[in-house]
Amino acid sequence: MRVSLATSAGRAERPNEDFVGAVPGAVVLLDGAGIPGAEKVCSHGVAWYTHRLGGTLLGHLSRNDGRDLAGILASGIAEIAAEHGDTCDLEDPSSPQATVVMVRAHQGGLDYLLLADSFLVLDRVHGGPEVITDEREVIARRECSAPLDRVTSGTPEYDRIRDSCVTALRARRNQPGGYWLAKDDPRAASEAVTGSRLIADLAGVALLSNGASRIVTPYGLTDWAGLLGLLAADGPSGVIRRVRQAEAQAGNGPGAPAPDDATVAHCTHLPRQESA
Questions:
Q1: pTM above 0.85, yes or no
Q2: pLDDT of 274 higher than 70
Q3: At what angle do helices 46-63 and 69-84 cross, to 10 degrees?
């Protein structure tokens, strides 16, 4: 399997909280959740968490011991929680956490796992791209922020309601009926979106963090089919470069999203046999 990778920090003064890496036949991408106040409850920080968890997942995947991806993720979450559980308040809602995307070529199929709002794009031989993501956080955020639609931005009432919306959203994290991320509870792995596709039906796959997926939404520079074309022509770094150009053009105007860490992995020449 041929894998091309690129990642870019959203802000020069802050560490890149994304992680991406590969071992033969498998790829892992994590998007760290940079929540204000995380440094007060965990001295290590979000970037440490994503890099540590990502490296641990790659280690498990390289062993090729037959476990499914959810089992590997559960083990990884438990191991990293044990590493800093004695020094950091992992139960605090602001402690480090991350989205997860994993793919693995195995016995003629491509297994996948997604937890939270990163993206997997399957480049199908027939029928165009298939886009897979975990929409539960987006749905929860939309529902929790609905009260803001009835108040005027910039007013004390808006600020008060916004704070209550943030509290309501955090209360849904890693809870039944809410949304799930990799944090300190291995049970989150069992809530991941998982599946498999025949490798014979795929020309390739792409993994994108939320920051990189902005090239499609909200910037609308291309659609998912166009994204695959850009990856074939310019690689992951070309996609990220276009995202940065769009962010620069949007500036700091009302409603413009702040620059975000952006990461892309593009996999081609998928192995037709079990070994990669």
A1: yes
A2: no
A3: 140
